[in-house]
Amino acid sequence: MPIHREMRALYPADWPQISRHVRFEQAKGCCQHCGRPHGEIVRCLPDGRWFDPLIEGWRTQTGALANSWPDIVDYSRFRYTRVILAACHRDHDPGNNAPGNLIALCQRCHLIHDRPEHRRRIRLTILQRRALGDLFLGLYIRWRDTPSTHAQALTHEARLK
Question: Which helix (H) or strand (E) holds 154?
Fold first, then answer.
């Protein structure tokens, strides 16, 4: 996954070599959570199951063998995806490049792993915007309370007085 411009300074200069080592030497070219192979195009179902051509069977979202094949309704919703591995920080700290903190994950597993951190960052961004709005613009008013026409604006101001 690409590194955001504002985060690049937090990564070491030799990050490409570290990432390559984690993805291809440590993980041997497969996702360390679900087992999907790097660079391959695999059939995936919406619930996370995927078809492994090496064993000619389905695997679960954690890489274990699936007990049964998908039914016709599930199979009709499959899609092909190309698997790309990324080196992922377990603790979400790009400055912590200890070998035990780095793991190779496919796109799906990486997004699932980062979901709580992304939600935390979104919440902080919203709170910062609210604080700036309160500081410079006063309290927020709800969109449904804002007048949409000039006549409604005049009646809205009259109600506020």
Answer: helix 150-160
Residue 40 and residue 55: Cα distance in Å, rounded? 15
Give the span between the Cα atoms of 30 and 28, in whole angstroms.
Answer: 6
CB 97 within 8 A of CB 12: yes
C-alpha to C-alpha distances, 25 to 21, 29, 103, nearest whole angstrom: 5, 7, 11
User: CB–CB of 79/44 below 8 Å?
Assistant: yes
| Bridge partners, residue 50, by sequence | 44, 59
Reply yes or no on whether the pLDDT at 147 is more than 80: no
CB-based contacts of 73: which residues, under 8 Å, 6+ apart? none
Q: Structure pTM?
A: 0.72
Task: Name the token pair of 43.
Answer: 């059939």
Strand, helix or coil for residue 107: helix
